[in-house]
């Protein structure tokens, strides 16, 4: 019992000291990333923090599993709450997270507006028609397991193309009587043209209620706008 009380006390102390161990100015703060000699300013949305300063192989492996090996990860952000749990050794749920990547093969090249438009068109080429106007949960629950379904028409703007997708995942049951568990996941993928470089932003969120759809569409739009502002 004494050991348990000591461990609990240590966690409380670590949580109290955590802000001092994080980047100055709070958990989230803009930082510069060099892409082929070009200085790009990145930042995570409010409520999220980049995990790069942790140098954690476990988080790095997770980030790499969400993108192609041909991309370089510039930012992998988790919620502030998950970061605090991770820092004190508690389990974290990673229900929402996001990353920014850039293609390794074109890092040193300057991407023109025409080249970016061609890249965006190629990225959208194999997308099927968006979901019909039906209840989202019912639509996702009948989709093939692990297949990303386009949920709406791509959003386009100056130097920007963004899509919204949904996926049904099935996890095996645990224990003798455990039943498989289904989870629905929303994701947005946004291509951004910043200072002559092509970046890809991806946001993930579990889907349990309509509020999750409203959140991911809103945070994606605001995040892309903020990165464009920081890199003008």
Question: How does this model look, in words?
Answer:
The protein is of the alpha+beta class and 232 residues long. The chain has one domain. It is built from 6 helices and 10 strands. It has helices at 2-21, 57-65, 80-87, 113-124, 136-141, 210-230; strands spanning 31-35, 38-42, 48-50, 71-79, 96-103, 149-150, 155-157, 160-171, 181-194, 197-206. The strands form 2 sheets. Strands 3, 4, 5, 6, 7, 8, 9 and 10 form an 8-stranded antiparallel β-sheet that branches. Strand 7 (155-157) and strand 8 (160-171) form a beta hairpin. The protein starts with a helix and ends with a helix.
Quaternary structure annotation: single chain
Q: Report how far the terminal alpha carbons are from each other.
A: 57 Å
How many helices? 6
The secondary-structure class comes to: alpha+beta
> Which stretches of 5+ consecutive residues score pLDDT under 50?
1-26
Task: Tell me the layout of helices and strands.
Blueprint: H1 2-21, E1 31-35, E2 38-42, E3 48-50, H2 57-65, E4 71-79, H3 80-87, E5 96-103, H4 113-124, H5 136-141, E6 149-150, E7 155-157, E8 160-171, E9 181-194, E10 197-206, H6 210-230
Antiparallel strand pairs: 1-2, 3-4, 4-5, 5-10, 6-8, 7-8, 8-9, 9-10
